Amino acid sequence: MKKILTFCIVLLGFVTVIAMKADPQPDFKFEKETNDFGKIPQGKPVSYDFKFTNVGEQPLIISNVESTCGCTVPKYTSTPIKKGETGTITVTFNAAAPGAFNKALTIKSNAKTPVKYIYIKGSVAAQ
């Protein structure tokens, strides 16, 4: 009985590994996940391109990119990104108030991790 139970556990482990390899999902690899704008002037929009590569096997599809406020506007690659191809999420920040800022952007996709975050930060100098 002990041998049969051991055999079943080993067999279940092999089946699990094979099943995981059967449906590899897309995945992000960002060049940089946080951009520090440093000191920027008040009222002057600044932008940064977050570049990423699909390191998964299936096409990567971004369904939405959301910011935490209206002062941060994201634009992103909306077409499927094949294995090994690159895409861009352009983030524009319009600094209305002086002081330090730290903003998160939420990326929703069909990736292995369906919700991912990228960040911008810096300091706004009063005019």
From TrEMBL:
Q: Which InterPro entries match?
A: DUF1573, Ig-like_fold
Keywords recorded for this protein, A-Z: Signal
Please verify whether the record's keywords include GTP-binding.
Answer: no
Q: Which residues form the signal peptide?
A: 1-21
Q: What is this protein called?
A: Uncharacterized protein DUF1573
Q: Which organism is it from?
A: Arcticibacter pallidicorallinus
